[in-house]
Amino acid sequence: MSETVSFTFVHCADLHLDSPFEGLQVVDSRMAATLRDATFKAFDQVIDLAIRERADFLLVAGDVYDGADRSLRAQLKFRDGLRRAVEAGVQCYVAYGNHDPLSGWEAKLEMPPGVHIFGGEEVEQFTVRREGVTLAQVYGISYPVREVRENLVPRFKRQGKGPFAIGILHGNVGGNPNHDNYAPCKVENLVASNMDYWALGHIHAQQIMREHDPCIIYPGNTQGRSVRELGARGCYLVRVDDIGRLTPRFVATDVVRWFLQEVDIADMTTWDDLLNLLSLTKEEVRAAAQGRAAILRLHLTGRGELHAQLRRVDPERDLALPLRESETERPDFVWVESLQNRTRPLIDIAKRRREPDFLGDFLSAAENLRTAENPGATLKEVLSGRPEHRLIAPQIDQLTDADLLTFLTDAETLGLDLLLEE
Ligand SMILES: [Mn+2]
C-alpha cells in the first residue's frame, strides 16, 4: 500500500427506507408521523455526517429499500439524499441487496452524476479520486434477484496496484442463523481476498468482525424497527491515514430507539414501590435515548409478594396506559410498547416441586418438559395432541424454542397460582 493519501469515508447499510415499525399501536398523529419518517430521517443523518465530516465518499451496502417493489417516495428520498451528498463533494457507491434486488420495480429516476450503482452481472470496479489523486478502488455487485445463494467473494479480484481496495458485499458472513443465508461466505474468504476493507451489509447488528488486514465491518441498520432491533443503530465513519491505517468510528443515526428493560419485584412490598420504579425506569430510558424518541418494552420479573396482587390487574390497562400519558406531547417521548408480567410467586418452587402431592407432580411435569433433550420439539408434540391445535398450528410452527419455553414458564406460573389458591 504505497503512496496512500489520507481520506475519509462513511459506510452504511440496511436503510430499509419506508419500512413500518412492527407491533405498535400508536393513535397520536404526530407520533405516528415520527415513526413513519424514522427510516428517512436516519438516512438524512448519514448524509449529514458525511458532509459534516468532509467525507470523500459514501458506501451503501444493500437493502436501501424494504421491499423489492419500493415506494416512489422512498426512491425520491434516497435520490435527494445522494444528491445532497454529491453536491457537497461526497461520491456515492451503492450496491443493492436481497430486499431491493435489481429485478424489483423501480421508477426510472436519473441519478445525479457522482452516484455509482453497481450492476448485478459481475463485480464492478470504480476508482475514487480527489483532485486527480487516486484514493481507493471500490468493488461491488448488486443482487440481480432476491435469493443469491452463491458465495460472491471469489468474484472480487483486485485489479492493478491501486493504493486501497474496498469490497462492498451484502451477505451473510459466518453463517449468522438469525438472517437469511444469502451470499454466504466465511471470514477466511474475506481475509484471502486481498481487499483492505470489507463494507458489509445484511446483518442488522453492528459488528467489527476484524480490525485490520482487512478491516471487516457490519455497520448494522441505520434505524431499529422492532423490539428485535434494540439499542443504538447507525453507520461507520472511517478515516484512513497516509500509511493506510484505518480508524473506524460508529456513529448513531437512529431517531427512534428501542429499549427492553426488566423491572424486578423481588424487594417490593407495595404498589407504590412498583409504580415508582416503573416511572424511574421510563426516565432512565429517556436519558439513555439522548433526546431521541424511545420505544420501551417492560418485563416485570422476579419472585415477590406483589406477584399475587399483579394477577388482579390488567398490565396493559392499569400499568402501561398510565405510563403513556402525556408522552405524546413531547419529541423525546418514551412510548411503552407493552408491559409483560413474568413474575413468580414468593415460594421456593424447587423445594415445592419435591412434595409428593398434586402440585408437586404438576411442577415436576413442567420441569421435565423444560429439561427434555429437545424441549422445543417436545413442547410442540404435547401441543399437537391438544384439541385446540387445529386452530393454532400455523402460529406454533413459527415459534422459536425460546418462545415455547417462555410459554411453558407462563403456564407453569398460572397453574401454580391457581393451585395455590385452593
Ligand atoms: Mn437488511
Overall description:
With 422 residues, this protein is of the alpha/beta class. The protein has 12 helices and 15 strands. The strands form 3 sheets. Strands 4-3-2-1-11-12 form a 6-stranded mixed beta sheet, covered by helices on one side. Strands 5-6-7-8-10-9 form a 6-stranded mixed beta sheet, with no helix packed on it. Strands 13-14-15 form a 3-stranded parallel beta sheet. Helix 2 packs parallel to helix 3, helix 9 runs antiparallel to helix 12 and helix 10 packs across helix 12. The protein is elongated. The model has no long low-confidence stretch (mean pLDDT 91). The structure holds manganese (II) ion. Manganese (II) ion binds next to loops.
Low-confidence stretches: none
The side-by-side strand order for the widest beta sheet comes to 4-3-2-1-11-12
Report the CATH topology name of the largest domain: Purple Acid Phosphatase, chain A, domain 2
Assign an overall shape.
elongated
Features:
Purple Acid Phosphatase, chain A, domain 2; six-stranded mixed beta sheet; 422 residues; binds manganese (II) ion; 2 domains
